[in-house]
Design goal:
The complex is a heterodimer.
Chain A: E1 2-11, E2 14-24, E3 29-33, H1 40-48, E4 54-62, E5 65-66, H2 72-78, E6 80-83, E7 90-94, H3 95-109, H4 117-130, E8 141-142, H5 148-162, E9 166-170, H6 178-191, E10 197-201, H7 205-210, E11 215-220, E12 223-228, H8 231-239, H9 242-248
Parallel strand pairs in A: 3-10, 3-11, 6-9, 9-10
Antiparallel strand pairs in A: 1-2, 1-4, 4-5, 7-8, 11-12
Chain B: H1 3-10, H2 18-31, H3 51-54, H4 67-73, E1 81-85, E2 88-95, E3 98-99, E4 102-103, E5 113-114, E6 118-122, H5 139-147, E7 152-156, E8 161-171, E9 176-177, E10 180-185, E11 190-199, E12 204-213, E13 218-226, E14 232-241, E15 246-253, E16 258-267, E17 273-282, E18 287-296, E19 302-311, E20 316-325, E21 333-342, E22 348-357, E23 363-371, H6 375-382, H7 388-404, H8 410-428
Helix pairs in contact in B: 2-5, 6-7, 7-8
The chains are: A alpha/beta, B alpha/beta.
């Protein structure tokens, strides 16, 4: 379970998160919506430990552990996964090697046996097939020359392999056509279980039609201004953020 | 004893052309060690001073270290090897070339000849001694020419594919060593030559190689320099590349306190090709200098250079690359790229590309970049559970992969990758 209390964070001298309170119980999917610049991506980065953000207040506990004290790799091992809004290109790093290194690092730390190249490829091929990814995407350099949709699917592939307990999807739907959107949503739905939670950051209701959340939270200017059930996303689709923001102010 | 004093004591006892040696000693006497003499500074040695070398006294003595132990640390391949211990050919440690079931002669005194397909000889028998070198321009070549005592002479006959040969230098004592090699490939011949050097102690290896690649011949020349971190390593290579021939070289410098690899490649015939690729991995207070001069003398020549430096600690890397295109060398295609990755704020790279073009229809370009590891890339890897040190290692290797990919023989590339790995482990410690 993820529990965020009064979380504030800044980058440089700019305060972006101004006291976030949010609880995501095990097994639930929560959506975070909100206008550009409201701090949605920052929340994802802070939860996964990016160093250029400074936490200025508040606490984050994840399954009882103080998440903010952990190195990014320790968070990954504990089960936190961030699907990047703009996945990073790694020229000179083969995608299959990257995926196997990551998977084995996590397996090793969790006390599980590492996979050899053959075992890994079998597993990876099964997942790429499910995500309708071309086989050669394993042979190419990580995200180099990938289309926007291929990059997003590559993030979902990493998530499927690493089997996180908490997935943070940062606008994984942006730039995807409706078919790709379904594939991504199916990828997340396949992980659904009593031990899996997700924070789905999105602009649009569209993704939430395929990935139905338990709760929807609206973030504005670094604060959650409203929370509700799935119907809140539909309401926002109709009326926009402006009235909500005015109401909160 | 200074180098010149030693030369005086050896007068008349050294093999080869004594007039050549006398001229070289005059040249060395007037030039001195770059950076260690007063007078006008040398442009070719602008970023590398040999003052520390000048202040070190070397003496030959009893071996202090086991040659076998040093040899065993190298990423050797299971192919013939010619081993020199403290500058002298070691028959015992060498693994000879078997040709058609007829092995080479193995006496250290007699020429190591193999009739028919390949000739290997000792330095004294070299007919090519000094035909390509410029002792009057290069003081370290003058020093080598003055004091060279041993070395190998490889002669690959026309249209013969000689496979891979390792040429290894092992230093076991605090001496100054001046090996002198001649490699000659006749028309259409093929060879992969892997030079490796390693040792223990405070020694000075000053190698000169003269290389002739005749029409249509192909020489792949790999160098792995993994000297003791208290040693000095200077290597000067002259390669003359004839029509449609290829000189494909790759240098990996990871050892030595001070290192300079200098390559002069002359594309003398039409459609000749030269690749002068290099990687330097440095840490601590190491200094390594890769200096190249590519001379395009004939039309349709191609030269390619990718030189990458990874620098940690207070280390300093130097790249000097000069492309000269003569008036006759129309349709020359020259490319040069120098990139440095600085792993520490105290590391330094000096890069000096030079183009000198006298022909009007040529394509020549060069570029240089300097940077640090990308923080976003590191975070991306760490966010997938990869520990910080491993993430950095992956990214350094990714940086090097473009340069290492130029080594197409998988066994050879594997050997170099093992050397890179050992450098990385040492750097972490």
């Amino acid at each position: 379970m993820l529990e965020i209390r009064g979380l504030s964070a800044c980058i440089g001298d700019k305060e972006i998160l101004k006291g976030i309170d949010l609880t995501v119980p095990q097994g639930e999917i929560h959506a975070i919506m909100g206008p550009n610049g409201s701090g949605k991506s920052t929340l994802g980065y802070v939860l996964s430990g990016r160093e250029d953000y400074t936490v200025t207040g508040g606490t984050v506990t994840f399954n009882g552990a103080n998440l903010l004290e952990m190195e990014p790799e320790a968070r990954a091992i504990a089960g936190v996964f961030l699907a990047f809004q703009a996945p990073i290109e790694l020229p000179g790093v083969n995608n299959a090697n990257f995926l196997r290194t990551a998977l084995n690092a996590v397996r090793r730390a969790r006390g599980e046996a590492e996979l050899d190249a053959v075992q890994f490829l079998k597993l990876a091929r099964a997942e790429t097939k499910r995500l309708h990814m071309r086989d050669d995407m394993l042979k190419r350099n990580v995200n180099v020359g990938f289309s926007g949709g291929e990059k997003k699917r590559n993030e979902v592939l990493q998530m499927a392999l690493l089997r996180p307990k908490l997935a943070i999807l940062d606008e994984t739907d942006s730039g995807l056509d409706i078919d790709a959107l379904k594939i991504v949503a199916d990828g997340v739905n396949a992980l659904r279980s009593a031990e899996f939670s997700a924070l789905v950051i999105t602009h649009h209701q569209r993704l939430l039609d395929h990935l139905v959340p338990h709760r929807v939270h609206v973030l504005s200017q670094g604060r959650i201004i409203r929370s509700g059930g799935p119907e809140l996303a539909k309401e926002l689709e109709q009326s926009g953020y402006a009235s909500l923001i005015a109401e909160a102010a | 004893m200074t180098f010149l004093e030693r030369y005086e004591t050896l007068l008349g006892k050294l093999p080869g052309d004594s007039a050549l040696r006398a001229a070289a000693s005059d040249a060395f006497r007037s030039a001195g060690l770059p950076g260690a003499t007063r007078g006008r500074p040398s442009e070719a040695w602008k970023y590398t001073s040999l003052r520390s070398l000048a202040e070190t006294r070397f003496r030959s003595g009893e071996p202090k270290h086991e040659a076998e132990t040093i040899l065993a640390r190298l990423p050797l391949l299971d192919v013939p090897r010619l081993v020199f211990v403290d500058g002298e050919f070691s028959d015992r440690l060498s693994v000879h070339i078997a040709n058609d079931g007829d092995g080479t002669a193995k006496s250290a005194e007699a020429p190591l000849s193999s009739p028919g397909s390949l000739k290997i000889a000792r330095f004294a028998d070299q007919p090519d001694f000094g035909t390509l070198t410029w002792p009057d321009r290069e003081p370290m070549v003058a020093l080598n020419t003055m004091l060279a005592e041993d070395g190998v002479s490889l002669h690959i006959p026309a249209n013969h594919d000689c496979g891979t040969i390792q040429l290894i230098s092992v230093a076991t004592t605090d001496a100054d060593l001046h090996p002198r090699h001649t490699i000659r490939l006749d028309a259409g011949a093929k060879l992969t030559l892997i030079e490796m050097s390693a040792g223990e102690g405070v020694y000075f290896l000053n190698t000169v190689a003269e290389i002739h690649v005749a029409d249509g011949a192909h020489l792949t020349h790999i160098r792995l320099q993994d000297e003791s971190l208290t040693a000095f390593h200077i290597s000067t290579t002259y390669a003359e590349v004839a029509a449609t021939a290829t000189y494909d070289s790759f240098t990996l410098n990871i050892g030595a306190r001070l290192c300079r690899t200098e390559v002069h490649a002359t594309l003398a015939g039409e459609h000749a090709t030269a690749h002068l690729n290099a990687v330097q991995l440095l840490m601590g207070a190491q200094h390594a200098d890769f200096t190249s001069v590519v001379g395009h003398l004939a039309p349709h020549g191609t030269s390619r250079q990718t030189v990458k430096n990874v620098l940690s600690g207070r280390s300093r890397g130097v790249f000097q690359g000069r492309i000269e295109v003569a008036r006759a060398a129309q349709k020359t295609d020259g490319y040069q790229m120098n990139q440095a990755l600085l792993l520490s704020p105290d590391a330094e790279i000096d890069s000096k590309p030079e183009l000198e073009i006298f022909a009007d229809d040529v394509k020549c370009s060069h570029g240089a970049t300097v940077g640090e590891l990308d923080a976003e890339q590191i975070f991306y890897l760490r966010s997938r559970g990869v520990p910080d040190a491993e993430a950095r290692s992956i990214l350094v290797r990714a940086f090097l992969s473009e340069a290492l990919d130029a080594v197409t023989d998988e066994a050879v590339r594997g050997s170099l990758e093992r050397a890179v790995e050992s450098w990385w482990q040492r750097n972490k410690a």
